[in-house]
Amino acid sequence: MDLKQEVGNPTSIRITRIVKENRSCHTLYFDIPWSDCSIQPGQFIMVWIRGVDEIPMGICYHDDKEMAMTVKRVGKATEALQALQPGDYVGVRGPFGNGFTLNCKNPLLIGGGIGMAPLRYLTQPLLHVGSNVTLLVAAKTESELLLYDFENRASNNFKLKIATDDGSRGFETLATELADSLLKKNDFDRIYACGPELMMAGLLTLALDYGIPLEASLERYMKCGCGICGTCAMDPRGLMVCVDGPVFSDEQLQNIDEFGSYTRDSTGQRRPL
């Protein structure tokens, strides 16, 4: 076994540019870290901030020259990432986990809050292969929406829907309620979701009701990212978010007892969602 490859080929990356998306989220663009880099939408990398911590981060953008991750300020590590400037370096390793599948023609993508990040990347290859993409972007209020450049996208096979809890932008409704309305009116063949887990639990119920396959990206506390520490294992089967996920199918989600109910903190204690 190649230990270096097993733990994700540790290296360093240079931040090339930073975009402030909203009041709490910044997108950091950086040079491609590996010469043979192939990161699938939904996979993640572990990011090490010297003297602070190492945390998992999803990829929100990827082309031939650069990649990007969107960082929401929630603690010391993310605050340190947002304090970086172009030209600064951080350590990375990966990629890890399973990504989204791309075998669909009429997908519905639903991103809640920071959950829009991996769906932004997923939208790229789906449009490239000619899928008819409907993207539902949701947040509590307009200032928390992550719209990236989708507002200005002109495409016959792309539709943008916006939902905010307070009605400050788009429909005044929950993501699940707008999704239900869209599912009644359209012939979708797959649902992709990322965001608050209670939202995704509601979307799973809808997917089962409508008989449409669903793939959802989950988040759990993790330390290693490669299946060694077990801190991201979920009840009752011990599926690990870092290696079995972070993207799970509707069939898998139905057999995860804690999905939509609770998560665990750094000590392993249950914490209600």
Short description:
Helices cover 20% and strands 33% of the residues. It has 273 residues and is α/β, with parallel strands linked by helices.
Describe the structure.
With 273 residues, the protein is of the alpha/beta class. It contains six helices and 18 strands. Strands 4-3-7-1-2-6-5 form a seven-stranded antiparallel beta sheet. A seven-stranded mixed beta sheet has the order 11-10-9-8-12-13-16, sandwiched between helices. A two-stranded antiparallel ribbon has the order 14-15. Strand 1 (11-20) and strand 2 (25-31) form a beta hairpin. Helix 4 runs parallel beside helix 5. The protein is globular, with a radius of gyration of 18 Å.
Level of helix content? 10-25%
- Main structural class: alpha/beta
Strand order of the largest sheet: 4-3-7-1-2-6-5
- How can the largest sheet be summarized? 7 strands, antiparallel
The oligomeric status of these chains comes to single chain
What is the rounded distance between the termini? Answer: 38 Å
Low-confidence regions: none
Q: What is the 3D form? A: globular
User: How many helices in DSSP terms?
Assistant: 6
Mean pLDDT: 93
Strand residues, percent: 25-35%
Overall radius of gyration: 18 Å
Number of strands: 18
Query: Order of SSEs, N→C?
Result: HEEEEEEHEEHEEEHEHEEEEHEE
Sequence-ordered SSE layout with sheet pairings:
Layout: H1 3-6, E1 11-20, E2 25-31, E3 44-49, E4 53-58, E5 61-62, E6 66-72, H2 76-82, E7 89-96, E8 107-112, H3 116-128, E9 133-139, E10 158-164, E11 171-172, H4 175-185, E12 190-194, H5 197-210, E13 214-217, E14 233-234, E15 239-240, E16 247-249, H6 250-254, E17 262-264, E18 270-272
Parallel strand pairs: 8-9, 8-12, 9-10, 10-11, 12-13
Antiparallel strand pairs: 1-2, 1-7, 2-6, 3-4, 3-7, 5-6, 13-16, 14-15, 17-18
